[in-house]
Design goal:
The complex is a heterodimer. Chain A is of the alpha/beta class. Chain A has eleven helices and twelve strands. Helix content of chain B is 34%, strand content 19%. Classes of the chains: A alpha/beta, B alpha/beta.
Chain lengths: 349, 389
């Protein structure tokens, strides 16, 4: 890695020869629920992530969508070992992360970064931007103060900030600019994989678009792999090569973006897509007539339904759904992986 | 509500509404010259980014602003002036004639009272009935918004409801007194899309059943597209474009609306760059001279800095107002979204070249080895400095 010039354009996940950059297999993460008595006892487990598996290639974006409480963010954090997974394996460039400790993990973390959702909460209000971006560089002993300063200026320029503003505090920037600071911090150590945890959902639409463009451009130039966690399906569609749909801790469907958005197989994906309003009055009214409106709410992850977790809200549910957990695999002729006993293609406009 | 409703007479007529807040830093011009009419059964969408004055104007209509606010202009409900009424005089109208659905169902319900008690209280405020009748009415309104087992749910506390169910309770509270105008301030922003679909459907059904008018405040252009009749786009405290929703979305005549529509990822444009609006909304204390959007506008001309344009009617067949000096020029563009296309990133050189000017450092495998590295960096840094000087 003396040249570091692997700046081939993002390949859209086509580059699957050899081992993928990231391999996640049977990832489980549960959090204990404590009782309220005098002696707190564990009275249950929140099964936040329940058997998630996927691969990610260099330069690829996997969109992870689902409603709140579906375990999207927990998945991202469990991959980065910010939450220790309960079980399962996470391999980055063939090396197992879940068993890694201490310095090994710290070295590894240069390649694995995260951009957080809330740019107001994820930047220290008492720190100047300079220090915020310098922190990872100092921790990983990037170089002399001069080198670090040069790097900071460069990073600020890359994300579209004026390096002259480096001595300002986070509150002096707008939401979009703050998110750019967060992105600069994540990129400081030249990572290969970045978890984007709802990076634009706290921003106004006009500002959102700029950050989305920036993320797209950075991926293209730096061959970054993204795990893009979001609930906004239209942003995910714009940015992802492949999309995985999560429901109550499990992946219910995964596959190429075009297929997921045009001919989804899983009833939940179909309902989710049909619920997204589009900013076109005529089409939106048409869609409203054909909208699949799910009844009820997401069940509690402490006590998920047996068998298929979606069956309590599914209009296709039959007896088998309560007894047998559908596995995530190819169904029918589609290239999508779907976890449904009755998966069938349905065009969604 | 015994008088007959003349559908041509507006229920609510807001004219030249201006709201200012004096602060230590100067006067905040939160709402400037806002005017609109609302007829029975009509749904008016108000879109805009944070700080555009959407919420403040609705609070002004309900008389919920703090006393420090300076409100001028007229808010007429069925011909009766609401601006200038005292807090107590407003109570007659609030909830009864005009009601409000707030954004966050978590904070708009009282956690220590049952849902039924809170609904009954709202009903008792405007009706002289027994508690029992009020309770029955509360249960009925819960049923109306689609909450299953309403008699059992009425005895529960807000924390026992999910987010979507809680928002239904808030809607039930807004409609329990059968108001003529419902102001919904971002009613689905805190909710997931599948739940959002349920809530919007409920709101429209209630509109059909009660023929109440709805003011839908949102930043989601998709929500507006599907559910409203008329839309007004707000920027820096004032309406910059208004009209029938199809007309405004199909042929926007104000660059800000164009930018807003272009910022939304459109599935038919995958692979293309989004067209963001550069810069940030102006400070409401120090508004730019002339048109408030001029510093961010790609079509800006000298006249835009001189005077703020009036809301003028465009040449369309249906009502369509725009606040732009150059709307006629805008109409000449085939694809006005292209106006906003520009280079996003400051650096002109390829990014990769910028990043890898010192690549060895970060790919170094062990922290222990970085000591030698640092020396190398220093020499390199010095060289760079020399080169610079």
């Amino acid at each position: 890695m003396s040249t570091g010039t692997e700046t081939k354009p993002a390949t859209g996940g086509a580059d699957t020869t050899g081992t993928p950059l990231l391999q996640v297999k049977d990832l489980f993460k549960s959090f204990p629920v404590r009782g309220g008595g005098i002696i707190p006892r564990t009275v249950g487990q929140v099964q936040a992530v329940h058997g998630v598996s996927f691969d990610l290639a260099a330069g690829e974006t996997l969109g992870l969508v689902g409603e709140s409480g579906s375990g999207k963010s927990t998945t991202g954090r469990a991959i980065l070992q910010l939450h220790k997974p309960t079980s399962g394996s996470v391999k980055f460039e063939g090396r197992e992360l879940t068993t890694m400790r201490g310095r090994d993990l710290q070295v590894m973390r240069r390649d694995l970064q995260i951009v957080f959702q809330d740019p107001y909460a994820s930047l220290d209000p008492r720190w100047q931007v300079n220090d915020i971006i310098a922190e990872p560089l100092r921790i990983h002993r990037f170089g002399s103060p001069d080198t670090i300063q040069a790097r900071i200026n460069q990073l600020m320029e890359i994300v579209g900030l004026n390096p002259e503003h480096r001595n300002r505090y986070a509150h002096e920037f707008s939401g979009g600019q703050r998110q750019r600071i967060g992105i600069a911090r994540a990129l400081a150590l030249n990572p290969k994989f970045v978890v984007l945890d709802e990076p634009v959902s706290a921003l106004d639409v006009s500002v959102q678009a700029g950050v989305v463009n920036l993320l797209e451009e950075l991926q293209h130039e730096l061959n970054l792999a993204y795990l893009f966690v979001a609930h906004d399906l239209s942003v995910v569609r714009h940015l992802s090569h492949r999309v995985a749909v999560m429901y109550l801790g499990t992946l219910v469907e995964m596959g190429p973006r075009e297929l997921i958005y045009s001919r989804p197989m899983h009833p939940y994906t179909q309902a989710l897509l049909s619920a997204v309003p589009v900013p076109d009055p005529k089409r939106e009214r048409e869609r409203q007539r054909n909208r699949i409106v799910l009844t009820g709410d997401v069940p509690s992850p402490v006590n998920p339904p047996s068998g298929c977790r979606f069956r309590t809200r599914c209009w296709k549910a039959q007896d088998i759904c309560a007894t047998e957990v559908p596995e995530l695999r190819k169904r029918g002729d589609s290239d999508l992986l779907a976890a449904c006993h009755f998966a069938e293609e349905m065009p969604v406009g | 509500m015994t008088e007959t409703i003349d559908t041509n007479e507006p229920l609510l007529r807001v004219s030249d509404l201006t709201v200012e807040f004096p602060t230590d830093d100067g006067v905040v011009h939160a709402v400037r010259d806002l005017s609109f009419d609302l007829r029975p059964g009509e749904v008016l969408g108000v879109v805009g980014e944070s700080g555009s004055g959407k919420s403040v104007s609705s609070m002004a209509i309900l008389g919920l602003l703090p006393r420090t606010a300076r409100i001028s202009g007229s808010i007429a409900y069925r011909g009766q002036e609401l601006n200038g009424l005292s807090y107590n005089e407003m109570r007659k109208f609030r909830g009864n004639s005009i009601s409000m659905i707030f954004q966050d169902p978590m904070t708009s319900l009282n956690p220590v009272f049952t849902v039924g008690a809170q609904l009954a209280e709202a009903y008792l405020e405007h009706h002289k009935v027994s508690r029992k009748v009020a309770w029955a009415k509360a249960v009925e309104s819960l049923e109306q918004v689609g909450i299953p087992q309403p008699d059992r749910r009425a005895k529960q506390f807000p924390h026992e409801f999910s987010g979507g169910m809680r928002q239904r309770v808030v809607i039930a509270m807004a409609i329990i007194n059968d108001p003529d105008v419902i102001i919904a301030d971002e009613p689905t922003t805190a909710l997931d899309v599948t739940v959002q679909a349920q809530i919007l459907e409920t709101l429209l059904r209630i509109r059909d059943e009660t023929s109440a008018a709805i003011i839908m405040i949102t930043h989601d252009l998709g929500v507006v597209a599907g559910m409203v009749d008329k839309v007004q786009v707000m920027y820096a405290g004032t309406v910059v474009e208004a009209g029938v929703v199809d007309e405004v979305f199909d042929t926007p005549r104000m660059p800000y609306t164009v930018g807003l529509l272009g910022s939304n990822p459109d599935p038919s444009l995958i692979g293309q760059r989004l067209t963001p609006i550069s810069g940030a909304p102006p400070s409401l204390v120090n508004l730019p001279s002339g048109c408030a959007f001029s510093p961010r506008c790609p079509l800006v001309a000298p006249v835009c800095h001189e005077s703020e344009p009036e809301l003028t009617e465009t040449s369309g067949t249906v009502v369509h107002l725009t606040r732009c000096h150059r709307w006629n020029d805008l109409a000449g563009y085939d694809d006005p979204k292209k106006l906003f296309a520009r280079k996003e990133i400051g650096a002109e050189e390829p990014l990769a070249a910028l990043l890898i000017d010192n690549p060895e450092v970060v790919v170094e495998e062990h922290l222990a080895d970085t000591a030698d590295q640092t020396n190398d960096d220093r020499t390199k840094g010095d060289q760079e400095k020399e080169a610079a000087s």
